[in-house]
Design a protein that fits this description.
Strand content: 5-15%
Organism: Sporichthya brevicatena
Distance between the termini: 82 Å
Pfam family, one: DNA_pol_A_exo1
Number of strands: 8
Number of helices: 21
Structural class: alpha/beta
Number of domains: 3
Strand order of the largest sheet: 2-5-4-3-6-7
CATH architecture of the largest domain: 2-Layer Sandwich
Largest sheet: 6 strands, mixed
Helix content: 40-55%
CATH topology of the largest domain: Nucleotidyltransferase, domain 5
Mean pLDDT: 93
Protein name: Ribonuclease D
Length: about 425
């Protein structure tokens, strides 16, 4: 039996992948069907393709509302984690297996919420980056590597609705239909390019650090915050954001659907002194927003009443270097070091056909350029990169280049400025 990918390789152009080979399976919504699905997974062979659909922009948080899985011989499973919150049978069935995901860091947190945590992964998006593919979305990768075209029309829908429409389920099933085929093709390319060990190190790093830590002052991510300069106005942004977040969590609605960021920023800039003034602002013109005007105004008043020593600072304290745009003025030598390192590492990335940011995290480069070690030997730079979290393959390619770049920058800085031409 041939796979859709095998059939596509015999054609001249991308073959539309319109339907899973075995049709769209029913959604698993009961303990009995979950047990049957887990048995099918356990009886399959090879790695397990895994995907998850969230309701970003509709619901609070990043909860998974549909989980898709497939192994060779198992068929596709479409699991409703809301109807089946206890996924113990699935957890047991995939224990020890390699998971194949696309953009693993996006799905692992919501899968962890329901108890699904991989021990080994293969990230097809990250593999594409290491191989130098210019476009690494799933649809692009499947088309270029497997010769199949996926329909991507339902990625941003509200996956919390029930029942899920059949076209959405077909889309979700197709996302894992050929994911293992894509994995196998990319693994062969990584091996041929001498990059398979790089990929294994990257994948292991994701598994070792799967979940992002808590964000400090998450309200500072409000879009347009750069327009707010005064501490009291920042306190209003914080107060409105926290009020909105509590309401969103209680109602399980995406915060932006309760109050847009633009309304928070405009209210902070205007500092209205009454509910009527607030409700008269165009950004508060929506029916539900006007209905809660008293709540929003109370948040503004709470910020207005704070003593000065409780106002938020303009910026969070940082242990890292300042933004590079200010370096030329604040420390020209550091700016020169950064330019030299960027150019040298860019050449290494180009030679190895991968993005510079995957060769080495830009933050590591900025830290070394801003505060280089007094004696930047290969051993010292290697230790610094290890401390930042760089992988062995990255260190092997970049440590020597960084040492040379710092030495060259130091020599250039020590050379006397050229005398102006007297003629």
């Amino acid at each position: 039996m041939t796979s859709p990918a095998d059939d596509a390789r015999d054609g001249d152009g991308p073959v539309p992948l319109l339907e899973p080979a075995d049709g769209v399976p029913p959604v698993i919504e009961t303990a009995e069907s979950l047990a049957a699905g887990a048995a099918a997974l356990a009886a399959g062979s090879g790695p397990v393709a895994v995907d998850a659909e969230r309701a970003s922009g509709y619901r609070y948080g990043q909860r998974a509302y549909l989980i898709q899985m497939q192994r060779r011989g198992s068929g596709i499973l479409l699991i409703d984690p809301i109807a089946c919150p206890d996924l113990t049978p699935i957890i047991a069935a995939v224990s020890g297996l390699e998971w194949v995901l696309h953009a693993a860091s996006q799905d692992i947190p919501c899968l962890a919420e329901v108890g699904l945590r991989p021990e080994r992964i293969f990230d097809t998006e990250l593999a594409g980056r290491l191989l130098g593919y210019p476009r690494v979305g799933l649809g692009s990768m499947v088309e270029v590597v497997l010769g199949l075209s996926l329909e991507k029309g339902h990625s941003a829908v509200d996956w919390s609705v029930r029942p899920l429409p059949e076209p959405w389920l077909r889309y979700a099933a197709l996302d894992v239909e050929v994911l293992v085929d894509l994995r196998d093709a990319l693994e062969a390319q990584l091996r041929a390019d001498g990059k398979l060990e790089w990929a294994h190190q990257e994948f292991s790093a994701i598994v070792a650090n799967p979940l992002p830590g808590p964000r400090v002052d998450p309200w500072r991510r409000v879009s347009g915050l750069h327009r707010v300069r005064r501490a009291r106005q920042l306190a209003v942004v914080r107060s409105l954001w926290e009020t909105r977040d509590r309401m969103a969590a209680t109602r399980d609605i995406a915060p932006g659907r309760i109050l847009p960021d633009s309304a928070i920023v405009e209210a902070a800039l205007a500092m209205p002194t009454s509910v009527e003034q607030l409700a008269a602002m165009p950004v508060f013109g929506g029916r539900s927003t006007r209905r809660a005007a008293g709540t929003w105004f109370a948040a503004i008043e709470a910020a207005r009443a704070l003593p000065d020593d409780q106002l938020p600072p303009a910026h969070l304290p940082s242990t890292g270097p300042p933004p590079p745009r200010s370096w030329a003025e604040r420390d020209p030598a550091a700016a020169a070091r950064l330019a030299a390192l960027r150019a040298a590492l860019g050449a290494v990335a180009e030679a190895n056909k991968l993005p510079t940011e995957n060769l080495l995290a830009p933050d590591y480069v900025r830290r070394i350029a801003w505060s280089p070690p007094e004696n930047p030997t290969l051993e010292v730079i290697t230790a610094a990169l290890e401390g930042y979290g760089a992988r062995p393959w990255q260190i092997a390619l970049t440590a020597g280049v960084i040492v040379t770049g710092l030495e060259d920058a130091a020599k250039a800085a020590a050379e006397p400025a050229a005398e102006p031409d007297a003629s």
